[in-house]
Design a protein that fits this description.
Layout lengths: L2 H15 L1 E7 L5 E11 L5 E6 L3 H8 L2 E8 L2 E12 L2 H7 L2 H4 L11 E15 L3 H15 L7 E6 L1
Antiparallel strand pairs: 1-2, 1-4, 2-3, 3-6, 4-5, 5-6, 6-7
Length: 160
């Protein structure tokens, strides 16, 4: 697969998943993950999320910008490593605002606490298992019968 095809695969998985597990590093150096809805995925894998200024993810990103965001849906998964920044630009917040975000911030895009996290993606690893669960089970049986390593799909690493 070419780099362009791999990047397209990564963005397709993200767009199909919608919810990512954003992992940050807390003050003690421990990894902390929480789900966030991705608002936009750019062609190069960079991502945008809405959040609140008083959240742990904002505190963590301001102290250490290294993050990981993982997505999974059915038989496809992707893990994206990068750096994040907190964006408080009201024009950008209004531009990206949508009705789903209002569930979290009912006072609208001018709510003082609302902000964006922009993830500048550096690299991604992805895994796909075509054919779903049935194909995975068949590959497992085949591996057991033939005493060989199980192969259930495609995987790759791509620089973004």
């Amino acid at each position: 697969m070419t780099d362009a095809q791999s990047i397209s695969k990564v963005t397709d998985i993200i767009n199909g998943s919608h919810i990512g597990m954003l992992t940050t590093i807390n003050g003690e150096g421990a990894l902390v993950s929480r789900p966030l809805a991705v608002q936009e995925v750019l062609d190069d894998g960079d991502m945008w999320f809405f959040t609140g200024l008083n959240t742990s993810q904002v505190t963590h990103v301001r102290a250490d910008s290294r993050v990981n965001v993982s997505f999974g849906k059915n038989t496809e998964w992707v893990s994206v490593a990068g750096t994040a920044e907190v964006v408080t630009d009201r024009a950008k917040i209004r531009e990206m605002w949508n009705q789903a975000v209002e569930a979290w911030f009912p006072d609208g895009p001018d709510t003082p606490e609302v902000c964006l996290l922009r993830v500048d993606s550096d690299s991604a690893e992805y895994w796909t298992s075509p054919g779903g669960t049935a194909a995975t089970v068949l590959q497992w049986v085949k591996a057991k019968v033939t005493n060989s390593r199980m192969s259930v799909g495609e995987s790759g690493t791509v620089d973004l």
